[in-house]
Amino acid sequence: MADSPRSVVTTTITAKKMGYIPTMINERNRAPNEYTSQQPQDKHFALGAHMSSNFSFELGGAPYTIPSPTEKPIAYVAAVVLFVSLAYALGDHGAKLPEINPLKPFELSNTRRILEFYQTSKELMLKGRAKFGDNPWRLMTEWGNCLVLPPDFIHELRSNPNLAFVEPAKDDSHGYIPGFEAFDGDEALPTVVTKYLTKALTKLTKPLSEESTLVLRHVLTDSTGISHLRDTEWHKMSPQQDIMRIVSRLSSRVFAGEELCRDEEWVRVSSEYTAAAFGVGYEVGQWPRWARPIVHWFLPSCWRVRALLNECRKTLQPHMERRAQRKREAVAAGKTGAVFDDAVEWFEKESSRKPDPATQQISLSLVAIHTTTDLLTQTMIDLAEHPELFQPLRDELVRVLSKEGLKKTALYNLKLMDSVIKESQRMKPVLLSTWRRLVMKDVTLSNGFVLRKGQKIIATNTHMWDANYYENPATYDGYRFLNMRGTDEEKNAHLVSTSAKHPGFGHGQHACPGRFFAANEVKIALAHLLLKYDWKFPDGFKPQMVPHGMVLLPDPSATLLIRRRKEELDLDSLEC
């Protein structure tokens, strides 16, 4: 889970995987061509004395009439669009700072620049850092025109009250558009995560481990017997698709209970909605911000998003009715304890408005499932590329878990695993920027630079590949953060710790609140995978991360060869 609750980052993986490539809308400047005239005889004109609903005047002795808006509405709308687009393109939107992908002469649209960013985002950010160093600069992105700050300012601004966190995320995710309510950020979501989810980590270890056993058996096969020879032979798996199914089951077990997490129809329709919404979000994002609340009504892709959200609600409705019935039965039986202890119940307790369980469950999946899938997928890919880490990780699991059981405290003591996951996040964060804010009031930085009200500011994650911050930054070192423990940098060595140096989960007041749950979930799933399976790449395959706008995708072409192995430790028998 990244700093933003729109894991945008993170869900974008599904959109790319399922083929929802951004549709770049051609912005046409439709200059009115509704009327003709004679060539003027001179350069002087005089307003006609007679005025009606139309605007009449004489130019060089020749009469001219401009139709009223009621007679030619399309021409007037086109003229307004042209004027506003021109004013926006040429207007001053903040300090005069260098820009890495500026408008070209006479260019009135940002379409080219946004498309260029989608295609070359990583290169543009690296180029900007190399060119401007520790000075602010500007960049046109799918999030709009952003002021890029040097990473050292992340810590200085970590708790600044004049920088908004939710507003830019909601705006960029189009949560104000009907059908995109799941991206609007339920006001109760932060409370649900911090007050309930994080505090419940101790009792969530057992259900997460139980569900891991079941879902791995279902998705990857789980038999070592002679009657299941294919299970113990190498066979293919698709990391992104299969890990998405695994993480969805684990997260949904906690968020909505056993029944819903195993409802294949809910898994299907909610996944389709998320993928479609991300894909359409890119399409809507190509329009100027002021036009989006209107344009979406005329886009068939937005109609489909709204239809899918309604389908999600219909699929969830029988589950909600059964829950309500069980609550009534409990009350009638005189039971006073909570019947359910999951996110559906937590939202009901904390929401100030009528809860919408479908959008709330999808909102949770956006900030949990997709980003967690990204992290676990990348870790599996990195381990396949560095097989020398398999045995040390398995040795650690057997040593720690056989002594402590599968408990929250034991997960904390899986220090090599913690380091490996954090290194995977350093090498490929879910987003090129996990720190984004909107300036609500002018802010003066320690170097005297002033952030102006209305500016959208970001800090890139490219410094995590910089030798000024990490030794041998291009080398994957699974022991990197383990070796930091016991040094002055120990406070930044843990997977869940955040810093300006490693903002994989964001940093500051609005760092990802669900990172503690995500870390435990990834460790439990990885423990089952490591002890129960071997995996490797097909011969000759070399994975490459794929930048797509702000998102950094695990190699979508990656295929793993996997086989069942006999585990050294029976995880299902451990005390939780």
TrEMBL record:
Query: Which GO-annotated molecular functions does the record name?
Result: heme binding; iron ion binding; monooxygenase activity; oxidoreductase activity, acting on paired donors, with incorporation or reduction of molecular oxygen
- Decide whether keyword Calcium is in the record: no
Question: Which top-level group of life is the source organism from?
Answer: Eukaryota
Q: What are the binding positions for heme in this chain?
A: C512
User: What protein name applies here?
Assistant: Cytochrome P450
UniProt keyword annotations, A-Z: Heme, Iron, Metal-binding, Monooxygenase, Oxidoreductase
Cofactor(s) the record lists: heme
The family classification in the record reads: Belongs to the cytochrome P450 family.
Q: Pfam families recorded for this chain?
A: p450
Q: Does the keyword Oxidoreductase apply?
A: yes
Q: Which residues form the signal peptide?
A: none
